[in-house]
Amino acid sequence: MTLFTRRDALQTSLGALAGATLLGSGNLRAEVAVKDVPAPQYAVEKGASLRVLRPAKFVQGDETLFLENTKKFSQQYGVEVKVDSESWEDLRPKTATAAAIGSGPDIVLAWSDDPHKFASRCLDLTDLATYLGEKYGGWWPIVEKYGQDPKTGKWIAMPIGGSGNRFVYRKSWVNEAGYEQPPRDLDGFLDMCRKLKAKGHPIGFALGNAVGDANSWCHWLIWTFGGALTDEDNKVTINSKETIEALKYGKALAETFVAGAASWLDPSNNKAFLAGEISGTGNGISIYYAAKNSQDPAVKAMAEDIYHAAMPIGPVGRPTERALIVNSMVFQHTKYPNAAKEYLRFMMEKEQYEPWLTASIGYWNHPLKAYDGAAIWSVDPKHEPYKHVLADALWDSYKGTLGEASAAVLADFVIVQMVAAVATGQATPEDAAREAERRAKRYYKS
């Protein structure tokens, strides 16, 4: 196997950065000022009330500030707002049911591409999204992808945030392996992981059907080599030389994993990391805060040694991370469309949004560029690597369009199981890529 060298990565990255403004290194972006833009005038309906369905909390501060901001809205506008929370697994079927029967919640903070399944049932939010984009420096490209209907260009949803994984690592052990920090090139990263394992500190990425963690690193792996599920015309292209090279690298990387990672689900790497069984993994900022707030003195002390870094960059020469998007949508069946849009506007304005972002401790990332200046990203230097999770991310159906087919492939773990089959020695890269192609074509029917 010919791996991508550090020199190649540096040369490619420098060339890409020369023209990159959207997906380059977060540290190179200038902060954007908030502009004085007239807000749209929504005449809130008399006697309006709203039902909001959102994901159950991942961090307590998210829910606490969301409910506080909702209460502020109700007091200011006289609109009663009931907020219901559902687990990851239950949010999608509840959203689908409301769309099918045309009743239920007015607003849903849906997952990622869910609004695209019900585009004809979504209220047009173009005026609201345009206002917020003009005021707050514009939306990140991935946000526009998830918010806009590719057929009409209208905003059928409005992402309010997203979460993504970074490489979470024990700095003292990385230093012990001879590195000051994780390398940003693939060969250097693999060398570090091999040395960590040799010293008794293996890394571990989820290889089971982990909705968040396995999808995150497996998609990064394919994308960073230039592979993609489909092309721009939604033709399945996963069986490519780029994918096969990615799978070869993935197998080499998996050889540095701790035993048992092949069956890990989303909670598994958190537990292994906090137990001191692994030196690094892909995760949100939650591991750091779990350690920082632990009642166990040994775990609490670990927080000082926990650092975060972006995943390395491969032949494509730019970040290719994955993000989970919280995508707000308003159903057309709402009796109070003006109240619904005013509620979303209110929640996204700086007075409400920045406190919510701060309370979310860096777990949720901002979709509007001006929020780069939010205090959460500078109050603790360990937050900074999560500052541009959305700026660095590609969408789940990359390079194709969002919709039923892409959602089905994700739900069927086609990419994750392809990577896992090679990583565990159950299939060759060529066989695994062919099988992924066969499975994907079941959903992408020509």
TrEMBL record:
Keyword Calcium: no
UniProt-annotated location(s): Periplasm
Classification via InterPro entries: Bact_solute-bd_prot1, SBP, TAT_signal
Keywords, ordered alphabetically: Signal, Transport
Family from the record: Belongs to the bacterial solute-binding protein 1 family.
Name of the protein in its database record: Extracellular solute-binding protein
